[in-house]
């Protein structure tokens, strides 16, 4: 009797457990995420792509990934194809800030939520995206500006700045410029004597710096490069032109990649403002939350700091990108 009762109880527990498993399974319908990446223009971008792919895998999310080769039209095509494939969520890092209304309206009409990562967009209708996960590029520009103010506080100037801009019309290029201007605009000793885009690439940075070196030579006191790849290209160009980066010219850069750190240790970049590309885990959490119907904050800001040359050797071993 005792035995039969135990058997029955065991069967009952087994049944309940398999029902629970069934329920969990039904809930866990795999999420498909379409991600439209900017390109592969920089070390930052490579680390960002690895982070997104790895985090999707770890989160059990089915990732469709495309590379727009830094062209907005390619990104728009990729987003349209994700809409046609009826993915659950679309995420993308917008190449430039403007021109997104039509395609995002199509996504909205198809009831596919859109998450922005890394770069922001300029749209009137804020309902075209759920949230924006990434850095505060204005603040990064201000941080660089504050470093310059502090560094040159006992120097009457003039301090001539040559600026290597990122991709024209991109949020980081616009904001790293504006953030700097906000800090130095009331101090007439700082002058931007040259400003041109190197499209965030090493080759672009090198080419623009070659031209700057020819035109302005020793007049340049500061190179303000919107990312490490362009700073590294500019360093090559300066060395070829007989200018000592980090000594004759102060080099200010962004991202704080391993390449940037190595250049600081070699004495060639003076300060590197951090910008983290490791956005994958935060993105996957947001994707799951959106699918689960949770309310997300409109803006999720990454935590970042500034690294002067003097701390580079000590910090480099802890850097992940
Ligand atoms: O600084 C640069 C990359 O959007 C923050 O894009 C990103 C920028 C980053 O190409 O290296």
From TrEMBL:
<comment type="similarity">
    <text>Belongs to the bacterial solute-binding protein 2 family.</text>
</comment>
<keyword id="KW-0732">Signal</keyword>
<dbReference type="InterPro" id="IPR028082">
    <property type="entry name" value="Peripla_BP_I"/>
</dbReference>
<feature type="domain" description="Periplasmic binding protein">
    <location>
        <begin position="39"/>
        <end position="294"/>
    </location>
</feature>
<feature type="signal peptide">
    <location>
        <begin position="1"/>
        <end position="26"/>
    </location>
</feature>
<dbReference type="InterPro" id="IPR025997">
    <property type="entry name" value="SBP_2_dom"/>
</dbReference>
<dbReference type="GO" id="GO:0030313">
    <property type="term" value="C:cell envelope"/>
</dbReference>
<protein>
    <submittedName>
        <fullName>LacI family transcriptional regulator</fullName>
    </submittedName>
</protein>
<dbReference type="GO" id="GO:0030246">
    <property type="term" value="F:carbohydrate binding"/>
</dbReference>
<dbReference type="Pfam" id="PF13407">
    <property type="entry name" value="Peripla_BP_4"/>
</dbReference>
């Amino acid at each position: 009797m005792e035995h039969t009762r135990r058997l029955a109880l065991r069967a009952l527990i087994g049944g309940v457990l398999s029902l629970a498993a069934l329920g969990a399974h039904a809930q866990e319908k795999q999420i498909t995420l379409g991600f439209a990446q900017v390109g592969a223009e920089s070390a930052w971008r490579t680390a960002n792509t690895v982070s997104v792919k790895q985090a999707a895998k770890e989160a059990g999310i089915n990732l469709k990934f495309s590379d727009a080769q830094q062209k907005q039209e390619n990104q728009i095509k990729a987003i349209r194809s994700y809409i046609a494939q009826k993915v659950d969520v679309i995420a993308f890092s917008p190449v430039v800030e403007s021109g997104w209304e039509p395609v995002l309206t199509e996504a909205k009409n198809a009831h596919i939520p859109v998450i922005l990562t890394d770069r922001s967009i300029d749209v009137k209708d804020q309902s075209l995206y759920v949230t924006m996960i990434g850095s505060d590029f204005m603040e990064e520009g201000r941080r660089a500006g504050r470093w310059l103010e502090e560094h040159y506080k006992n120097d009457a100037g003039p301090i001539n700045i040559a600026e290597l801009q990122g991709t024209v019309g991109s949020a980081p290029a616009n904001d790293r410029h504006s953030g700097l201007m906000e800090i130095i605009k009331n101090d007439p000793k700082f002058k931007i004597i040259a400003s041109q885009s190197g499209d965030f690439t090493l080759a672009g940075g090198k080419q623009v710096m070659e031209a700057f070196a020819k035109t302005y030579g020793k007049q340049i006191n500061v190179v303000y490069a919107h990312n490490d790849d362009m700073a590294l290209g500019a360093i090559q160009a300066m060395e070829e032109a007989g200018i000592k980066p980090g000594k004759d010219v102060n080099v200010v850069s962004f991202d704080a990649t391993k390449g940037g750190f190595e250049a600081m240790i070699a004495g060639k970049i003076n300060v590197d403002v951090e910008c983290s590309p490791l956005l994958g885990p935060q993105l996957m959490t947001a994707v799951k939350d959106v699918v689960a119907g949770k309310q997300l904050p409109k803006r999720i800001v990454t935590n970042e700091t500034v690294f002067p040359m003097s701390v580079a050797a000590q910090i480099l071993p802890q850097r992940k990108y």
